[in-house]
């Protein structure tokens, strides 16, 4: 029962329920209404109801405009009479790029050059070490670090198919020795690494800290890009001047 409740509370499931509920209410209103509205106007009504339901469910603030605009955008796109093939291709491409973001709540983020330079300054210079990127994307960070700190052994885990394939191809083309695996880092033991880097989202940070506390060795480093661990003060913060105004948070275990 608890598993079912936790599944229902996933934002993607709440969003789906909000849209279905608002669509049902809108259809009932349309059947009972004495005044004529066109499809765009009814879609705005549906979007307003969906946004209200999302607000009442205490969903994140950025879900509210998504709820409001989803149905009007869908009606506008359908009015263009595009081939269904475009929708299939778009869905497949998004799934290959983002994977199970609806479940993990971790989108694809790419680390900037400033992030690479800052992490370079944190790595050992005269001793061997192991480094892992949790959600390694297209492998750019690992490849750059492997060139500047050749005494390190680099690992990455990526769950989205297309970024994983890009990172593997990049390794083959430039002959780096980064070990990148396809899979879920939650099932991966972190006790083998001296430095763990994560660029995730606010949602999993508390769970990540629990995993880190149980598995990482004393003296090892956890580096989080942008997202803090609730209630746990980092040992060091590095404010960057890149396009997203990133901040690196560092904890020594």
In words, what does this structure look like?
With 253 residues, the chain is of the alpha/beta class. The chain has 2 domains: 2-81, no CATH class; 113-252, Vaccinia Virus protein VP39 (Rossmann fold). Helix content is 50%, strand content 15%. It has helices at 2-8, 11-32, 39-56, 63-79, 84-98, 101-104, 113-122, 140-148, 161-174, 205-215; strands at residues 129-134, 152-158, 178-182, 195-198, 221-225, 236-239, 247-252. Strands 3-2-1-4-5-7-6 form a 7-stranded mixed β-sheet, with helices on one face. α2 (11-32) crosses α3 (39-56). The longest helix is centred in the N-terminal third of the chain and has 22 residues, at 11-32. The two termini are 36 Å apart.
List the helices and strands and how they pair.
Elements: H1 2-8, H2 11-32, H3 39-56, H4 63-79, H5 84-98, H6 101-104, H7 113-122, E1 129-134, H8 140-148, E2 152-158, H9 161-174, E3 178-182, E4 195-198, H10 205-215, E5 221-225, E6 236-239, E7 247-252
Parallel strand pairs: 1-2, 1-4, 2-3, 4-5
Antiparallel strand pairs: 5-7, 6-7
Helix pairs in contact: 2-3, 3-4, 7-8
């Amino acid at each position: 029962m608890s598993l079912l409740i936790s599944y229902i509370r996933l934002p993607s499931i709440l969003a789906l329920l909000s849209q279905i509920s608002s669509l049902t209410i809108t259809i009932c209103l349309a059947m009972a209404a004495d005044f004529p509205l066109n499809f765009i106007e009814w879609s705005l009504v549906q979007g307003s109801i969906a946004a209200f339901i999302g607000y009442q469910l205490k969903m994140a603030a950025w879900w509210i405009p998504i709820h409001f605009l989803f149905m009007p955008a869908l009606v506008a796109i359908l009015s263009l009479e595009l081939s269904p093939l475009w929708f299939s291709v778009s869905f497949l491409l998004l799934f290959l790029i983002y994977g199970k973001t609806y479940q993990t709540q971790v989108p694809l983020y790419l680390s900037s050059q400033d992030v690479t330079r800052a992490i370079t300054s944190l790595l050992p210079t005269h001793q061997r070490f192991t480094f892992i990127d949790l959600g390694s994307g297209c492998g750019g960070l690992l490849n750059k670090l492997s060139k500047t700190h050749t005494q390190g052994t680099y690992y990455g885990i990526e769950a989205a198919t297309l970024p994983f394939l890009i990172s593997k191809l990049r390794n083959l083309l430039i002959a780096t020795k980064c070990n990148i695996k396809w899979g879920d880092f939650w099932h991966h033991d972190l006790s083998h690494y001296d430095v763990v880097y994560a660029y995730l989202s606010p949602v999993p940070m508390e769970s990540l800290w629990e995993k880190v506390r149980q598995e990482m060795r004393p003296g090892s480093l956890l580096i989080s890009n942008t997202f803090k661990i609730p209630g746990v003060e980092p040992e060091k913060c590095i404010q960057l001047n890149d396009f997203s105004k990133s901040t690196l948070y560092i904890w020594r275990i």
